[in-house]
Amino acid sequence: MRLILADHPISAVKFADTTQLQGTTLLVDQAALRQHLLADRRLVGVDVYIVGPGESCRFGVVFDILEPRAKAPGAGADFPGILGPIETAGRGTTHVLQGCAVTVLDEGAPLATGKIVDMSGEAGAACPYASLSHLVMVPHAVHGVERHAALHALRLASVRASVYLAGTAVGQEAASTEVFETQGPAVARRDGVPRIAYIGQIHSRQRVAEVDEPILYGANTVGMLPASLHPNEWLDGALVTSYSNRGVETYFYQNHPIILALQRWHRDGKVTLVGTIATMAGSDNDDRARNCMLAAQQAKWLLAADGAILTKYGGGAPHADMALTARLCEQWGIRTTVQVEDMAQDRRAESSQLFNYAEVDAIVHVGGIGTRWSVPAAERAIAGNPADVAALAAPQRLDASRLCGVVNQQGASRLRSFVY
């Protein structure tokens, strides 16, 4: 399967009378964007802001962050199952506005436990989103709309805005293109080159998904067993984060660090990327045992993998599910590396692991609650209400786990250590 990402670098985002791409500047007509989004009658208004890289600005609570992307004509649906009909993602040409992001804030989420972005200072230096130009949107739901319906409206607003903005690049010549093409498990074995699979959790059943909560091709994953996906599907709109994302944003599905690295290593002959498996953290012990067993068996018998890289989605129970999957892979002769988030208050490795399997001995740590910054007052803050704006703007102590992208379970973290 062949995916071409046509990259259009963005150096600045500005408001204008017409939405268009002029060179490396994205011009946005606020009124036209609002009209486009307010076709969803569950929304009564949308506030729109522009935030530049390195600006003294904080914003939250973040619902999700996306990179603006749009499929070329005839290349398939944008976000199939959410915006377009259900069809295989990861084929044809996708236009990418590189260097900017659509960031949607949730006015109904509590700031105390919500995720934020800090665009400057030490905290900003650790945040991969601080170098981007953000179109920040605060959609306002109609009074009385049920919470799950308001969240669904946020999700539709996020993908609609992403495609609307990236549509300005369709028909323009890209600055560069990158081709992603792998044959999957049918690829011939190459002497001395390991066959590698990626096993990634896409939801945790610690929190029951809403009936209208699109995660994989528009489905909420309820009743789902581990599913084999082509690597391109992760990059091209098959997946978005759940309503309760922890250390995961859709931006890093679109720019998945692990999958991109494996794709490029495959192209260079360092590894053979045989495929990926999307799985979930279980709701109980039987669910955990079943999902972990099936994911490991797929890696062995469907993908014929020599090695696997595993990541989690959520907190402690997903941590244990990931480790058990890795242990079962090791027992099938598949060498594994797992990526973990430090959740221990005492900052001890023994407390943070939540598992102790001798077989699972290659562990990548991507940061956690033990990293904090004292940040000064921000010159600008954006939130869904005045109280949150004031709280965000004030000097404070920020925990790394509250900052989007700093403790990132998809592999984008800049803070990490390796334990062998």
End-to-end separation: 36 Å
Please count the helical segments: 10
Query: What structural class results from the helix and strand content?
Result: alpha/beta
Q: What is Rg?
A: 21 Å
Classify the beta-strand content into a percent band: 25-35%
Oligomer: single chain
Poorly predicted runs? none
Helix fraction bin:
10-25%
Shape field? globular
- Total number of strands: 23
* Mean pLDDT figure: 93
Sheet having the most strands: 7 strands, mixed
Strand order of the largest sheet: 15-16-14-17-18-19-23
Tag the structure with descriptive keywords.
single chain, 420 residues, alpha/beta, 7-stranded mixed β-sheet, 23 strands, 24% helix
Overview of the structural elements:
This protein is of the alpha/beta class and 420 residues long. Helices cover 24% and strands 30% of the residues. It has ten helices and 23 strands. The chain has helices at 30-37, 121-125, 147-166, 231-235, 251-254, 257-268, 285-302, 316-331, 349-353, 386-393; strands at 2-9, 12-15, 20-22, 25-28, 43-51, 57-60, 62-66, 69-71, 92-98, 100-105, 116-118, 133-141, 176-181, 195-204, 227-229, 272-281, 307-311, 335-342, 363-368, 372-375, 380-382, 396-399, 417-419. The strands form six sheets. The protein has a seven-stranded mixed sheet with strand order 15-16-14-17-18-19-23, sandwiched between helices. The chain has a four-stranded mixed sheet with strand order 8-9-1-13. Strands 5-12-10-7 form a four-stranded mixed sheet. Strand 3 (20-22) and strand 4 (25-28) form a beta hairpin. Helix 7 crosses helix 8. It starts with a strand and ends with a strand. The mean pLDDT is 93.
